[in-house]
Amino acid sequence: MLFRRLCFSLSKSCYLPFFLSSKLTNPFASLNSNPGFISNCESVKLRFQRRMSVNSHNLVSENAASSTMDDPRKPPVVPIPSPETAEPIEVFRALEASLGLQFSSQPIFPKPGPLIIVISGPSGVGKDAVIKRLREVREDLHFVVTATSRAKRPGEVDGKDYFFVSKEEFLSMIQKNELLEYALVYGDYKGIPKQQIRQYMEKGCDIVLRVDIQGAMTLRRILSKSAIFVFLVAESEEAMVKRLIDRKTETKETLLMRVATAREELRHLNEFDYVVVNKGGELESAVKLLESIIDAEKAKVQQRRVVI
Ligand SMILES: Nc1ncnc2c1ncn2[C@@H]1O[C@H](COP(=O)(O)OP(=O)(O)OP(=O)(O)O)[C@@H](O)[C@H]1O
Predict the structure, then answer these.
(1) Which phi and psi (to 5°) does residue 305 adopt?
(2) CATH of domain 116-144+204-298
(3) 224-233 per-position pLDDT tens digit
(4) Nucleotide-binding among the record's keywords (predicted)?
């Protein structure tokens, strides 16, 4: 008899001892201050009660719902309509009410930050050709225009292919610490302006840097694992030399120097993350592979974070 009285008194909220107060026992309590949530729950509850009276088979037992609602120690049970017959929005709202939360429309995985892609490889493998095509097929990509003290080749445009500057101007940029990396290549300076990278990363663009092997090794030390390093090769040494000859941009002296250097440079392959073979006549495949690499990097759980 005493036990029954105790049970009865516990079922009435006004007789609850402090440790069983609704605030402590009801996980929905924190949501009571959210009028939107309450009206959602109420409207869902009303709609379901109406529905229950029409077709009780579609709903979780009415008895179960009412018995738990009487007990303030248990969270209110919101009946969930059958997904087969109910409107999807009703099921959605009922799930929210049952769990006591609102499903967020925020992205589950944040948008990946911009990447820095360093493309390198021996002279004549097709770095310029691959990058030119990549820029055509891929949006949100900024190709960093390198500053150089070398003379302009026929057809090259200042500010598009390179920023052509005098040796004195280049030395001044070094002094002002305006370059991420620079090197003396075949007697000419080449360097990467920092400001350009910052500016385009802020806009959310991926950054493509085209550097020779010497430059890539320096960047590896500076950027470490925060950038992606891609080594571009031709399918064979023979193909690479033929491409350089066919390009008709080199004197016999620079041709000899480039070919000799290329042999040496192939030894650095292991220091790169990826290798892309730019096969003769298959430029498109090389570009596709490069795109896949970028996409895969963007899908990584542990994203690379870069600060310039
Ligand atoms: N897949 C390919 N098939 C045929 N020819 C190609 C291919 N890729 C590039 N070429 C050609 O090979 C030559 C060398 O290419 P490119 O100038 O792009 O090389 P690079 O690596 O940028 O050389 P460098 O470092 O000397 O500037 C160019 O004439 C280019 O049109």
Answers:
(1) -120, 125
(2) 3.40.50.300
(3) 999 999 999 9
(4) yes
